[in-house]
Each structure stands twice: as C-alpha cells, then as structure tokens.
Write a structure and sequence with these properties.
The complex is a heterodimer of chains A (about 600) and B (about 425). Chain A is about 65% helix and about 0% strand. By secondary structure, chain A is mostly helical. Chain A has one domain: Cytochrome C Oxidase, Chain A (Up-down Bundle). In chain A, helix 3 runs antiparallel to helix 5 (about 85-120), helix 5 (about 85-120) packs across helix 9 (about 275-310) and helix 13 (about 380-405) packs parallel to helix 16. The longest helix of chain A has about 40 residues, at about 495-535. Chain A starts with a helix and ends in a 65-residue tail after the last helix. Chain B is α+β, with helices and mostly antiparallel strands and about 425 residues long. Helices cover about 50% and strands about 15% of the residues of chain B. In chain B, strand 8 (about 305-310) and strand 9 form a beta hairpin. In chain B, helix 2 (about 40-70) packs antiparallel against helix 3 (about 80-115). Chain B is extended. Chain B starts with a helix and ends with a helix. Classes of the chains: A mainly alpha (about 600), B alpha+beta (about 425). At the A-B interface, helix 4, helix 5, strand 1, helix 9 and helix 10 of A face helix 1, helix 2, helix 3, helix 4 and helix 7 of B. Chain A: GO terms for molecular function: cytochrome-c oxidase activity; heme binding. Chain A: It comes from Brumimicrobium salinarum. Chain A: Keywords: Electron transport, Heme, Iron, Membrane, Metal-binding, Respiratory chain, Transmembrane, Transmembrane helix, Transport.
C-alpha cells in the first residue's frame, strides 16, 4: 500500500515538472545522462576540429590555408599559416578535451547515468541532487576549458600532461599564463564533478539493486561502471593535489616542482623542488585514467556482443575477474610513462613487470569476446559493428603497448609518434567505438526512437577505415624516430632528407584519412539529431535483449522508470539461445523453470 | 572569402544529401514495412562480407606500409646497446604481429562466418574453465619471455658507467644544446645555476666565477642593480616610489639577498681543487663530435624546462631536468661515414633532437652529431681549446692517435 501511495505521489510530481526542472536542472538520471552525452558530443566535435587544424599543418607545413585562417583568425593563423605556439595549444586542448571531457565525462558519465538505475531495477540514482551537481560541474568546467581557447595569450601549451616547469612559467611559453590558470580551474571543477558522480554510481550499485539482482547477476556493463567508479574515486584526488601544488608554484611562489631555473634571462630563486614529483602524481591518475576511459567501453561491448551474437557472453566470471584485475593493476603501473625521466632504472624494471601483467587480463577479455562470437548468430546492428571494431582496435592498440611497456624499447620509442599511435588506437578508436556502440544500442531507451541503421553502417565503415588509415601509418612515423609535438618535421631535412620525405608522405596519408574520418562523423551527427525528432518510434525491446532496461512499460521511461512495482530478477542477463527455451532470449525477470540451471 | 563560402556550401550540401538519403530510406522502409530494429538479411550479409573485405584491406595496407616505410630510413642502431635494443624490438615485433594477425583474423572470420542464417540457432556456450586457463597461461608464458629479455637489455643499458667511459655533459636550454667535454682528466668541473652570468652562461664553478657572481649580486653592473643599489634606492627619501614599485623592489631585494647569502656560503666552502676540474673542460656549442668506439657517459642538465635528449640513431634518450642531473651512456660503433655508406645516403648526419615539449620552437631544437675516425677526431680536437684557454691536447699526439685507433678497431672487430 505504502509503495502504491508513494507511486501516486511520484506520478503526481512527474506531471508538474516545468521545462527547467525537466530538461535543465533535472534530477532524473536519464536526462542527466543525456546532458552528459550532448555536452560530450559538442566537446568531441570541438576536439576533432582542433585535430584537423593541426593535421593540416603537419601534412602541408607552411602552406597557406583559408580554412585555418577562417577558424583561428589573424591572431593564430596569419595568412592562413598556423602559429607555432598555437600548434602546441591545439594539441594540448585536443588531448585534454578528448581524454577528460569526451572519454571520461562523455563515456562513463553518459552510460553510468543512463544504465546503472535501469539495469539494476532502481528508480533513480542514490542521490539525484548530487547527480545533477555532477552534470552541472561538468558543464561549467567544459565552458571554462573552451573559454581558455579565446584568451589573448593562448590556451595551455604544455601538452595535456602539463608538465612543470613549462606549465609553471609564463616566461617559457605564452600559454602558461592565463590559459594555464583556466586549464587548472577547469580541471579542478571537472575532478569534483567526476568524484561526486563516481561516489553516486558506487553507492547506487551497492545499495539500490532490485530484488534478486545479486552482484553475480549484474550485467557486465554495471560491473565495468563499478570498477571504473572505484578507480576514479581513488585516483582523481591525486591529480587534484598535483594540480593544487602546481597552482601554488604558479601563484604563491612555492617550489614543489621548481628548482635551479633560469628562464627568460631571469634567475628564479626556487630551490629544492622536483619536476619528477609532478610526473609521479600526474601519472598516478594518468594511467588509471586510461582504464577509466576503456573499462566502460569494454563493459558496453560485452553487453552488445552477447546480445547481437544471440549467445551468452563467454566466461562471465572471468570477465568480471579481468575487470577487477585490470582495475587493480592500473594503480601500480604509472611509472612506465617515466622510464627516461631520470627515475631510478631499478624502479623502472619493477614497473615493466607490473605493466606487462596487464596484458594477461586483457588477453583473457579478447579471447572471451572471440569465443562469444564463435558459433553465434550474429546480427550486425550498427552497435554490433562498433563493438566488433572495438575488439579489433583493442587488439591492435594493446599489442603495441607491449613494446612500450618494455623499458629497454621505450628508450627509443618514448614520446615518438609510436606512442601517439598506440594510445590513439586504444582510446581514440577503441574507447570511442565503445561510446558509439553504446549510443546506437541505447538510443531507443534514451529518446524512445530508433536511429537509422543504414547511416549507422556508413558511419561505422568510414570511421574504422579512416581510423586505421590515420593510426596504422602513424606507428611507422614513430618507428622512424619522429618526436611528437613537433610543429613540423623540417628539422629532418637538415640531417636526413630521405627520412624527412618519407615522414611527410606518411603525414599526408594520415591527414587525408583524418579529414575523411571527420566528414564521416557527419553521418553520425545527422543521424543522431534527426532521429531524436524524426526517428521511427522504438518498440519496447528492439534488440530482443535480456536486461532490465527493456522491461519498462513505455519505450521512454518516465522519472522513476517503473511506475508500478520494481521488476524482480530471477536469472543472469545472458540467457540467449538457451536450449529448451522457445525464444532465443529470456529476460532477467522470467523465473527459472523447474529443473532449469541458472548457467 | 571565396574559399570560405565553398567550405560552408560543401558542408550544407553534404548534410542535405544525407537528409535526402534518409528520406529515401524511410520511404522504402514504409513501402516494404521494414522496421528499423530488424536488420534485413541482405544488409546483414553485406556487413558480414564487409568484415572479410576490411580484414584483407587492413592486412594489405599493413604489409604495404611495412615494406615501404618499415624503418623510415632510420638505419641500423649506431651504438653497441642499440643493437641489442633492435634485436629485442624485432623479437617483440614478431610476437605482436603474430598476435595481431591471429586474433584479428579470428575476429573478422568469426564475424563473417557466424553471421545470422535463417534456421540456425546460436550455440549456448557459457564457459569452459580449461579453455580459459589455456588462454591465461599462454599469454603469461609469452610475457615472461618478453619480460626476461627486456629486463636484461634494460639493466645492461642503464647500469652505472665504469672508469673507461668518457664523461660529456649535455646542457639543454630553450632551444639549443651545448656539450661540455671533461678534458684530459676526464672529470667535469662542478656547476651551480646561481653562478650563471653573461660571462659564465653554463654556471661553471671556479673561484673567479663565484667572485664575479657575488659582486654582481651585491653591487650590480650597468643596467642591473645589486643588493646595495636597491637598498640605497629604498632608503632614499628624495625618490617617491609608488606602492607597487616599492613592493617590487623589496621582493627583488629579498631575492638577491637570499642569493648572495647562498653564494657567500659557496665561496667559503670552495676548494681550489675545483678550479682544476673545470679548467680543462672543453665547451662545444656547434656540434657534438664523438670518437668511433669510445664509450661515453653523458650527464644531462637543463637551464629552464624539461627537455629530452633524444639520439634516435643511437637508440638513446634521457630527459634533461632542471635541478637534477641525469645520465645515459652509449658507445657509438659506426662513424658518420660508415652510416652514409650503410644508408647509401651521402647527406646523412647523426642528430640530437629534443623530445619533450619545451616551448614554441621545440621542433627546431637540434644539435648535429659527428662520429669520427681516430685521425679526424684528433684533428678536430686540435682545433679546440679548454675552459682556461689552453689547447685541449697536451702530450704526445702519436700516442693518443694509437690509443684512439685501438679503441676504434675494437668496434671494427665486432
């Protein structure tokens, strides 16, 4: 009775929602998820544009481009030629936006919000208010980051890792002035957003699972979001402290990271600090961050591959185990970014060992995906295409990690384009594919309409072809010894013109594919926005899936998700094509038949 | 302006074209009663076939890239440890390419082969502990091999340099490099950044340099004020200072007083033996010249921000960190001429590049490196003088040449 009364009140509330409380300061986890997604799509568009700008410079250095002048103006692209300081600004903000705003906020923020309550059978997050705060802090930090692009002295220009002393000294590069201050403020707010969001995800998963939803019956998406949130809660505060100390060095004259420096003809009196300290603090977040980016994508693809192969995910428990193992190991590998930083070589060898261990759970995941596909009955929805693309790029990006983790080889390839290629295949392709897969798969639940699948195919095939087209050649640029963050590679002409020519050839191939890839995203943008308003109405369970989000009585659930009682769970989420069942899927709400084993 | 218009028009027409495509697809869907969530058989088949086509294209382009751009004219490793690194790289490369082909092939072939077929139900297969054990243990075993070989190479590349190594200091600053050779005594002079002046740009520690810095800090020089001048100015009642000017002067005074105290302490603890260390050092600013076969222990320091000394042809790299001296050692085994022959490229030269973002002109921060045969090296040495202005080479040249030749021939034998 009490529940029904509560429900009535709830329904009543629902009708009184104003535009502001429904769309802007919403407490509803689905709306907040959509807010994260829209902000991330916008930030992704900006990040992609920035990359096209600097790719043009790399392929056609010194050539005038109206396109650059049109966007960057006479301040940063006089006569259509990119300014060399702004080149660094572009790569810095591209990296920051993509890693934090698109792949952390966008991926984990969107899908944790949309899916955690729906797949667990909860009415909303543990705290709707904190959830709203998280979304708005994210928006505020996005705006500040974008504003920093318009500062006269330019945005932060010291790379997305913002290593001091470069980032601490405006005399060293102009972007380390106001641009860097805004960067630090934006990131501080972002970290706050991410932290409170993650705490909310964890408490929701621990406390608000519906009846029968044991931990071992949770979909792998939820497991991935849980591990991601825990990793985030443990690592982001360390970045916050790194940023605060950097802020103090810049503003209050402390010497945490500064020592023995003469810059711009001025002898600084900072003595005793260590720039290496910053690197340790930064990468203590920075490496787990890679998995914060990747794990949700892996969770999403597990779900999608199982559903669309019409088969249970192979080795459910091993998949959970490998998520936990990756989450744990991600904390003890950070110094593999610092093999040539001047750190004690013995410490380096410890990190070689721990880093290469991560390959084991990653390999388990890949083989489990392959076995899930084996003897399946695969339906190539756009989401499934992207999930398969994710597995391919996860392999291709993962294997080059083995070279980089090997400290002896890292001596040569460290900070070359080989590294750039490696982490872009993992994050720029694999994790982004996970995000696209998630959008195509759960769009019907988010907007109550279907996206166009043919545009989805076109989007996938142009994206994967141009994605590999960009990053496969880039490995060879790196093997040739080309340092990253070079405005152009003309320096090669002074000691090996043949190599210079080959690098330029490869750079042209890369840029052409980057431009094709950027245009390929038009398929997605159009499809996404068109379908929100004009897409065909979604059925209740379009992908014939087992998880709880497809059991809501309306395709687009209202606030509270299930107007009546919450569903009860009787089985794991992967009963696809189970022998003895009529249909090739059995939703989690269907009780076990007599004598039926769970799995 | 015209081009801008074209760019905008292209984007608009692109969007319109897609809109029309969607319209067509919607109309046909309506006509055939196709539902968006149901993927028709022909489309599923199309995507399945595309998986195979894509796989073949991926492999073909990968192989083409390998053949055409495999080493991007980098050449064989020109250092002893570099050869080990290249061997290790090749071993790893073979392993990862095998894994890349194997797993990608399984992925795309499975995707193609097990695409939905009418009447065929998927095989319910939830787990198999044995199988999972196999693909946990095999990667673990392969990785052990990689780790063992990797750490061997790493340890030998990073172990402490012995007495036979010649010390060279590489000094990095925005945006160039300077080399300081340790001279005939193979001991580098000490340095301190506080000693940096126009006359002593590398902050080398000698009695004279300390005294000069101390006097500059206290008294100042034309165009620059020292402690005494600032004090005078602050105490001068006839000069009216704004609050900001006063504050700036006080800050500067505090800074200079602190620095001069440190310099005084340095001058008290200074020992004359340090002069000897510094005086026979040789500073070279245009290019780094090395003797083929000589083992070098490089120490690195930075004046301003972090740079990275990257010697791509020698497979050597180490960050240069302000406030911290870092080290890397290697033995060049091919002279510049050897390498020109090997690459069949008469324009080839070795280079030291900056490989850590360090500011706007990062991409131009280079020093050329020459690895010379004994005779050429000795000739070059004879043109250089030491820090105190005496010739580098003291003593019998013939003996030295013989010694250099014995070093170079060690490499030839290998």
């Amino acid at each position: 009775m009490a529940a029904a009364a509560q429900e009535a009140i709830h329904e009543h509330d629902h009708h009184e929602e104003s535009f502001v409380s429904k769309y802007i300061f919403s407490y509803d986890h689905k709306m907040i998820g959509k807010q994260f997604l829209l902000a991330a799509i916008f930030m992704g568009l900006v990040g992609m544009m920035l990359s096209v700008f600097f790719r043009i410079q790399l392929a056609w250095p010194g050539e005038s481009s109206d396109f650059l002048n049109m966007f960057l103006g006479d301040r940063w692209a006089p006569d259509g030629i990119l300014n060399q300081d702004m080149y660094l600004g572009l790569v810095t903000i591209h990296g920051t936006i993509m890693v934090f705003f698109v792949l952390t906020g966008g991926l984990s923020g969107t899908f944790s919000n949309v899916l955690i309550p729906l797949q667990l059978g909860a009415r909303d997050m543990a705290s709707g208010f904190i959830n709203m705060m998280s979304a708005w802090l994210f928006n505020i930090s996005s705006v500040i980051m974008l504003v920093s692009l318009f500062v006269e002295s330019g945005p932060a220009m010291s790379g997305w890792t913002v290593y001091p002393p470069l980032s601490a000294l405006p005399q060293a590069v102009s972007g380390s002035g106001l641009g860097m201050t805004l960067w630090l403020i934006s990131l501080t707010i972002f970290i706050a957003s991410s932290l409170i969001g993650s705490l909310n995800y964890i408490s929701t998963i621990v406390n608000l699972r519906t009846k029968g939803m044991k931990m071992t019956r949770m979909p792998l998406t939820i497991w991935a979001f849980l591990v991601t949130a825990i990793v985030g809660v443990l690592s982001f505060p360390v970045l916050l402290s790194a940023a605060l100390l950097l802020f103090m060095d810049r503003v209050l004259g402390t010497s945490f990271y500064l020592s023995d420096i003469i810059v711009g003809g001025e002898m600084l009196d900072n003595v005793g600090g260590s720039p290496i300290l910053y690197q340790h603090l930064f990468w203590f977040l920075g490496h787990p961050e890679v998995y914060i980016v990747l794990l949700p994508a892996l969770g999403i693809s597990s779900e999608i591959i199982s559903t669309n192969s019409r088969k249970p995910i192979f080795g459910y428990r091993a998949m959970i185990g490998s998520l936990l193992a990756i989450g744990f190991l991600s904390f003890i590998v950070w110094a593999h970014h610092m093999f040539v930083s001047g750190m004690d070589p013995f410490l380096g060898s410890v990190f070689v060992f721990t880093t290469l261990l991560i390959a084991i759970p990653s390999a388990v995941k890949v083989f489990n995906y392959l076995t899930t596909l084996w003897r399946g009955s695969i339906v190539f929805t756009p989401a499934m295409l992207f999930a398969i693309g994710l597995v391919s790029t996860f392999i291709s990006g993962g294997v080059t990690g083995i070279i980089l983790a090997d400290s002896a080889l890292d001596i040569q390839v460290h900070d070359t384009y080989f590294v750039v290629a490696h982490f872009h295949v993992v994050m720029g392709l694999s994790a982004i594919f996970g995000m696209f897969a998630g959008v195509y798969h759960w769009f019907p639940k988010m907007y109550g309409r279907m996206m166009n699948s043919r545009l989805g195919y076109a989007h996938f095939w142009t994206t994967i072809v141009s994605g590999y087209g960009v990053f496969l050649p880039m490995h060879f640029v790196g093997i040739g010894g080309t340092p990253r963050r070079y405005y152009d590679n003309s320096i090669f002409d002074t000691f090996n013109p043949t190599a210079g020519e080959m690098i330029l050839d490869l750079n042209i191939i890369i840029t052409v594919f980057a431009i094709i890839g950027a245009f390929g995203q038009v398929f997605f943008f159009f499809n996404f926005f068109y379908s929100i308003f004009r897409g065909p109405k979604a059925p209740l369970n379009p992908w014939r899936s087992n998880t709880l989000e497809w059991t809501t009585p309306t395709a687009l659930p209202g606030h509270g998700n299930w107007p009546g009682e919450l569903p009860t769970v009787h089985r794991w989420p992967y009963d696809y094509s189970k022998p003895g069942a009529e249909e090739d899927f059995i939703p989690q709400t269907v009780p076990l038949k007599e004598g039926e084993e769970e799995h | 302006m015209g081009n801008k218009l074209v760019i905008i028009l292209v984007i608009i027409f692109g969007v319109l074209a897609i809109a029309q495509l969607v319209r067509v697809s919607e109309l046909t869907a309506k006509a055939t009663k196709r539902k968006e969530e149901e993927i028709p058989e022909n489309e599923n088949k199309f995507n399945a076939n595309m998986m195979l086509i894509f796989m073949v294209a991926l492999y073909a382009s990968f192989i083409w890239l390998m053949l055409k751009y495999g080493y991007v004219d980098l050449g064989p490793a020109a250092s002893a440890h570099g050869q080990e690194i290249d061997w290790l790289f090749n071993l790893n490369w073979v392993i990862i390419i095998a894994v890349f082909f194997l797993t990608n092939t399984l992925l795309f072939v499975f995707a193609w082969k097990y695409s939905r077929k009418p009447g065929v139900k998927a095989y319910y297969y939830a787990h198999n502990n044995k199988l999972e054990m196999v693909w946990t243990v095999i990667p673990a075993a392969v990785l052990s091999v990689i780790i063992i070989f990797g750490l061997q190479t790493w340890n030998s590349a990073t172990e402490k340099a012995g007495a036979e190594y010649e010390d060279i200091e590489i000094f990095a600053y925005q945006f160039a490099w300077t080399a300081r050779y340790s001279g005939m005594n193979n001991d580098l002079g000490k340095f301190d950044y506080k000693l940096t002046t126009a006359e002593n740009p590398y902050g080398i520690m000698t009695k004279e340099n300390i005294e000069r810095s101390l006097s500059l800090m206290k008294v100042g020089e034309p165009g620059q004020s020292g402690v005494e001048m600032i004090e005078e100015k602050l105490n001068d009642r006839s000069v009216i200072l704004s609050a900001k000017e006063r504050k700036d002067l006080e800050t500067e005074l505090g800074r200079k007083e602190r620095m001069s105290r440190l310099l005084e302490a340095m001058s008290i603890t200074y020992a004359d033996s340090l002069d000897e260390l510094a005086n026979d050092d040789v500073i070279v600013e245009d290019s780094l010249v090395l003797l083929k076969g000589q083992k070098y222990n490089f120490s690195f320091r930075s004046k301003d921000v972090i740079h990275s000394a990257f010697f791509p042809h020698f497979r050597a790299q180490m960050n240069t960190v302000p406030g911290l001296t870092t080290y890397f050692k290697f033995q060049p085994i091919y002279s510049t001429d050897d390498m020109k022959r090997k690459l069949n490229n008469p324009e080839f030269e070795y280079a030291l590049l900056c490989n850590k973002i360090c500011g706007g002109s990062h991409y131009r921060m280079k020093m050329s490196i020459k690895v010379l045969e004994p005779e050429e090296y000795l000739d070059w040495q004879k043109t250089k003088s030491t820090y105190d202005g005496t010739p580098w080479i003291k003593g019998n040249e013939e003996d030295l040449l013989e010694y250099y030749q014995s070093i170079a021939s060690r490499v030839e034998e290998n």
